[in-house]
Automatic annotation (TrEMBL):
Keywords: Copper, Metal-binding, Signal. Residues 1-22 form the signal peptide. Coiled coil: none annotated. InterPro entries: Di-copper_centre_dom_sf, Tyrosinase/Hemocyanin, Tyrosinase_Cu-bd. Residues 89-106, 251-262 form the Tyrosinase copper-binding domain. One of its GO terms (molecular function) is oxidoreductase activity. It comes from Lasiosphaeris hirsuta. This is Tyrosinase copper-binding domain-containing protein. The keyword Protease does not apply.
Length: 322
């Protein structure tokens, strides 16, 4: 679960590292690709994306681990390994690490014939009725909630029984080898307790305004990570779905969720590009101050990255906009 305790944040003012900005401006990204909302993509684009996401489960793993079957399994495995012990959440690297991870996934889709870009689920637009969102379409989407009555999935997991991903069979649950059918357990609403279906109230316009109102990175990132980000995981995963445990990239919706998290960050950066593109500050889980030279580990799925190269979506190692 990803509602993280963030008590140790530094509150010092933001400083722009001018040396790194100068270095980055030497690189160019002449025609950035536009990442689209799933709801606004064409049927052809959606079909092509879905086919490539399914194709990942037919490609060999890039890791040399006997329990792995496919490239699809690599994503859930790596995310789990980097979360226990914690190296990618609850610290400043949360945003650039997941930005790089989404790009690695987009590149993997390309290796499966997809020619488009990563897409996002605009959950901030769908917060009032998340279960009705276009992303859950059973044909041109990711299918819906899991089912109580679907058997053959072991205890505590609700198999997704519709949509193109109903035959996905991830290997890991958290860090354990525990093969199962893809699962979801959408959190029901509790109107009497003021909680909306799929915890939509935690990514409402009111919450998004609060998140976006922070002007420094070490306030903005934890606000984004804790509430909207954590609530979307918990809202989809519940207690018995793949989006809950640390192997959450098992659910292909993970990458549309994290592209949206990335888009919220990108929009925040765009409000003051001079100050915010390379704004990166806070205390790491090892107690040290974060720096733009910090490493983004990918454990062999892709080369390790450096934070600096993933701050600007329009330069360095990246070339896209939202
Ligand atoms: C840029 O950030 C600095 C430090 O936080 C701040 O003093 C300055 O006002 C900001 N500039 C703009 C144009 O917002
Ligand atoms: C999802 O399905 C589970 C199992 O039937 C159910 O308990 C839960 O209420 C459903 N969630 C929503 C939002 O419908
Ligand atoms: C982190 O940076 C602050 C200043 O922003 C400094 O006071 C503190 O000592 C640094 N911490 C470490 C562990 O280097
Ligand atoms: Cu994560």
């Amino acid at each position: 679960m990803k509602f993280l305790h963030l008590a140790t944040l530094a509150t010092a003012a933001l400083a722009l590292p001018s040396d790194s900005l100068a270095a980055r401006q030497k690189k160019t990204c002449t025609s950035p690709k536009l990442r689209k909302s799933w709801a606004k993509a064409t049927a052809t684009e959606k079909r092509s994306y879905i086919n490539a996401a399914l194709c990942l489960a037919t490609k060999p793993s890039r890791l040399h681990i006997s329990t792995h079957r496919t490239l699809y399994d690599d994503f859930g495995y790596i995310h789990a390994q980097l979360t226990e012990p914690q190296r990618i959440h609850g610290e400043p690297v949360f945003l650039p690490w997941h930005r790089y991870f989404v790009q690695v996934y987009e590149d993997a889709l390309h290796s499966c014939g997809y020619t488009g870009t990563a897409m996002y689920w605009d959950w901030a637009a769908d917060w009032a009725a998340p279960s009705k969102a276009a992303v859950w379409d059973p044909v041109l989407g990711f299918g819906g909630n899991g089912s109580d009555s679907a058997d053959g999935n072991g205890p505590g997991k609700l198999r997704v029984v519709n949509g193109p991903f109903r035959s996905l069979h991830p290997t890991y649950w958290n860090t354990a080898v525990d093969p199962h059918w893809l699962s979801r357990d959408w959190a029901p609403g509790h109107p009497e307790g003021g909680q909306a279906e799929m915890i939509g109230n935690a990514y409402s316009p009111t919450v998004m305004d609060e998140v976006n109102s922070w002007t420094v990175y070490d306030k903005f990132w934890p606000a984004l990570e804790t509430s909207p980000h954590g609530a979307v995981h918990a809202g989809i995963g519940g207690g018995r779905g793949d989006m809950g445990p640390v192997s959450s990239p098992n659910d292909p919706i993970f990458f549309l969720h994290h592209a949206m998290v990335d888009r919220v960050w990108w929009q925040w950066q765009q409000k003051d590009p001079q100050n915010r593109t390379f704004a990166y500050k806070g205390v790491r889980n090892d107690g040290q101050n974060a720096t733009l030279n910090d490493v983004l580990p990918m454990l062999g799925l892709a080369p390790d990255g450096i934070v600096r190269d993933y701050m600007d979506t329009n330069g360095g190692a990246l070339c896209y906009i939202y």
